[in-house]
Amino acid sequence: MLATVLPADLPAALQKIGTSQMDMYTGALAPEVIFEEVIGQLTAQNILLPTAFAAWVATRDGYMEVTLSDTSCWILRLSDDAVRYIHLHPGRYSPHSLRIKAAALKTAMAYKAAAANGLLTGELLVDMNAVRGMAALSPVRSLEDAQHILKIISLVTQG
């Protein structure tokens, strides 16, 4: 997705990530498998259709939790989008998930985009601070101070 974003457009593309923290799924299930398992559970409960799903989550504080075959927990909410009416994200501190800061994810996504556009020099700290600048983030002092960011870069660039 970000591989096609021009460096000048990167801050706007990353803005949607926000400024807080989130849970990132790190398990082995492919997105298609996650969707199939969620759809299977909703179908089994007869709440797959938009009106049925909306009514069901409305009686449960606006969300439901499902557990998948790998023991990961996922939160389902009603989306604002009428076509893609289910908003799905990993549960907080779920098995096979990692709690990450938005700035670390922005750095990792910017790093991946910079790599795809041939903008990396090969010097990790210099490259990390360059992409953080493109993402409108402040530089880090050292790689020792950036261990969380390095872990997220590793996860994001593997896929």
Number of helices: 6
Report the biggest beta sheet as strand number plus sense, adding barrel if it closes. 3 strands, antiparallel
Broad structural category? alpha+beta
* Distance, first to last CA: 12 Å
What is the spatial order of strands in the main beta sheet?
A: 2-3-4
Our estimate of the beta-strand percent is 15-25%
Q: What percent of residues adopt helix (DSSP H or I)?
A: 40-55%
- Write down the overall geometry: elongated
Q: How are the secondary structure elements laid out?
A:
Layout (H helix, E strand, L loop, with lengths): L9 H5 L6 E5 L5 H14 L5 H9 L4 E5 L5 E6 L7 E5 L6 E5 H15 L7 H11 L12 H12 L1
Antiparallel strand pairs: 1-5, 2-3, 3-4
Short description:
The protein is α+β, with helices and mostly antiparallel strands and 159 residues long.
